[in-house]
Automatic annotation (TrEMBL):
<comment type="similarity">
    <text>Belongs to the bacterial solute-binding protein ModA family.</text>
</comment>
<feature type="binding site">
    <location>
        <position position="182"/>
    </location>
    <ligand>
        <name>molybdate</name>
    </ligand>
</feature>
<comment type="subunit">
    <text>The complex is composed of two ATP-binding proteins (ModC), two transmembrane proteins (ModB) and a solute-binding protein (ModA).</text>
</comment>
<keyword id="KW-0732">Signal</keyword>
<feature type="signal peptide">
    <location>
        <begin position="1"/>
        <end position="31"/>
    </location>
</feature>
<keyword id="KW-0500">Molybdenum</keyword>
<feature type="binding site">
    <location>
        <position position="70"/>
    </location>
    <ligand>
        <name>molybdate</name>
    </ligand>
</feature>
<dbReference type="GO" id="GO:0030288">
    <property type="term" value="C:outer membrane-bounded periplasmic space"/>
</dbReference>
<dbReference type="GO" id="GO:0046872">
    <property type="term" value="F:metal ion binding"/>
</dbReference>
<feature type="binding site">
    <location>
        <position position="43"/>
    </location>
    <ligand>
        <name>molybdate</name>
    </ligand>
</feature>
<dbReference type="GO" id="GO:0030973">
    <property type="term" value="F:molybdate ion binding"/>
</dbReference>
<feature type="binding site">
    <location>
        <position position="200"/>
    </location>
    <ligand>
        <name>molybdate</name>
    </ligand>
</feature>
<dbReference type="GO" id="GO:0015689">
    <property type="term" value="P:molybdate ion transport"/>
</dbReference>
<protein>
    <submittedName>
        <fullName>Molybdenum ABC transporter substrate-binding protein</fullName>
    </submittedName>
</protein>
<dbReference type="GO" id="GO:1901359">
    <property type="term" value="F:tungstate binding"/>
</dbReference>
<feature type="binding site">
    <location>
        <position position="155"/>
    </location>
    <ligand>
        <name>molybdate</name>
    </ligand>
</feature>
<dbReference type="InterPro" id="IPR050682">
    <property type="entry name" value="ModA/WtpA"/>
</dbReference>
Length: 268
């Protein structure tokens, strides 16, 4: 019996010594992986994934990014969703969360700009010249125009504004295929489900199954600006660190590779 008790005591002692070693070894790895939660406009998917991968390689921190329509993200933030950083596809929705004191205003800045383009499936034979009164309805034929939701989603609002400015909105407003976000609108054209769509230039560049028929005049819609900010509820420094990285030349090159224009650079 004494022998058995001695063996059990020895095993218990060994286990008690091993557990702290295992725990302490795991802690640095967990700390190294900790990064911000980022809410970002769907159109940023390819570019921001590339930027986040570079940031992880440099810092060891991994950003957890949730992509969706800017309008949906703003509403989630308003309803208490946990996140550190918000990157909007327009100024209006950033203003919306700012007015509700949900961002740290000192951290807000304009990051990127974009263009609005008309796209078709890559094998389409359609050709249009985007100008006042251009025959968009005729080009659609019996098909529909793919566009993000025109009442709330930034890409849809920009698109509606452009069509109204060019005097062609009334002819197509009953022929829309409205999608939950701009990437969903892109997929409808990419899969050949609609003959034409309105998306950002960066979206068109991300999909080899579509081609750009033309860009909408910049003065036909409000400027396409992507502001970014740290959320007021953010608990740690990771959000500000990620925002600072977004303004580096390295991140700027990634954004430009993916079809964006960089507005801000350098340290805040």
């Amino acid at each position: 019996m004494n022998v058995i008790k001695s063996v059990r005591s020895a095993m218990a002692l060994a286990l008690s010594l091993a557990v702290p070693l295992i725990t302490s070894a795991a802690q640095p790895a967990l700390a190294a992986d900790k990064g911000p939660t980022v809410f970002a406009a769907a159109s940023l998917k390819n570019a921001l994934d590339a930027v986040a991968a570079d940031w992880k390689e440099q810092t060891g921190h991994e950003a957890v990014i949730s992509f969706a329509a800017t309008s949906a993200l703003a509403k989630q933030i308003e309803q208490g969703a946990e996140a550190d950083v918000f990157i909007s596809a327009d100024l209006a929705w950033m203003d919306y969360v700012a007015e509700r004191q949900l961002i740290d205003p000192k951290t807000r800045f304009d990051l990127l700009a974009n263009e609005l383009v008309l796209i078709a499936p890559k094998d389409s034979q359609l050709a249009v010249d985007i100008a006042p009164g251009f025959p968009l309805t005729k080009a659609l034929g019996d098909g529909r125009l793919s566009i993000a939701g025109v009442d709330a989603v930034p890409a849809g609002k920009y698109g509606k504004a452009a069509l109204e400015s060019l005097g062609v909105w009334d002819g197509v407003k009953g022929k829309l295929a409205q999608a939950e976000n701009v990437r969903a609108a892109l997929r409808l054209v990419s899969r050949g489900e609609t003959p034409l769509g309105i998306v950002y230039a960066s979206d068109a560049k991300a999909d080899p199954n579509v081609k750009v028929l033309g860009a909408f005049p910049p003065d036909s819609h409000p400027p396409i600006v992507y502001p970014a900010a740290r959320l007021a509820r953010a608990k740690g420094p990771e959000g500000e660190a990620f925002l600072a990285y977004l303004r580096t030349p390295e991140a700027g090159r990634r954004f430009e590779e993916n079809g964006f224009s960089v507005i801000g650079s350098g340290a805040p």
